[in-house]
Amino acid sequence: MLTKNEEPFFSICRLLINSCSPALCGLKPASLFSLSTQDYEVFSNCLQVITQQLSYFGKSIRPVFRLGRGVVIFLYDPQLLSGWLASPAVQEYLVGRGYPSDLEAAVEEFILRLEDSPDFPHEAGIFLGYPLEDVLSFEENPHFGWKYCGLWKAYHDVDYAKEMSRRCRECCSLCRAWHSQGHTIPGVMKKYSRLKQVS
Considering the chain, what is the average pLDDT of its residues? Predict the structure, then answer.
């Protein structure tokens, strides 16, 4: 992922902006993206610095080492994710799949499953903020029946899926532009927050 003549710190910041802007800016409880093991070794020190920076904004970053399949970077907001997972229906879904009800323990279990599973577990959609009804429908029929595909395959509330996809695309576009102008990730987050306050 490191392009020619590009510093590792700038490169991993660019990847985070491209992949995680909606989670950085509070539109989603979490985002994730994959790195090769080789790229992670290049970026690991930079990620430690960024993790420390983002902790002041209530964000957490967890690298997930998937044996023979590279590294997944899981960025999440514990407060937003806790609220999302607190829904009784979501709790029932996760507990039914062997997850603990405590947020930290549930995140740890999710990370363990990411490490051990050859594919992404279906419940990843829940942790990324996708509607439970769509996650359930995807489990039943991942290839047919969906009505709209934006951030996720929407089988039910298409208007909500379209609006969320539009907002997240807009967020990514703004954050990429600000970052290319020289703003840091914390600076980009502050600019987005101020923009939403006046809009």
Answer: 92
Per-residue pLDDT for 179 more than 90? yes
Question: For residue 193, how many other CB atoms are within 10 A of its CB?
Answer: 12
- Per the DSSP assignment, residues forming a β-bridge with 160 are none
DSSP designation for 19: H
The structure's pTM equals: 0.92
- Distance in angstroms (rounded) separating the CA atoms of residues 8 and 42: 7
Residues 6+ apart with CB under 8 A from 167: 22, 27
- Could you tell me if 63 and 15 are in contact, meaning their C-beta atoms sit under 8 angstroms apart? no
DSSP state of 154: E
Contacts of 71 (CB under 8 A, 6+ apart): 34, 35, 36, 37, 39, 40, 63, 64, 65
Torsion sign over Cα 160, 130, 32, 88? positive
Distance (Å, whole) CA 73 – CA 54: 14
Q: How far apart are CA 29 and CA 12, in angstroms?
A: 20
**Distance (Å) of CA 53 to CA 1, 90, 128, 130, 193:** 22, 31, 22, 27, 17
Structure tokens at 171: 């967020």
Query: How far apart are the two ends of the chain, measured CA to CA in Å?
Result: 35
Instruction: Provide the phi-psi class of 26: left if phi over 0, else alpha when psi is between -120 and 50, else beta.
Output: left
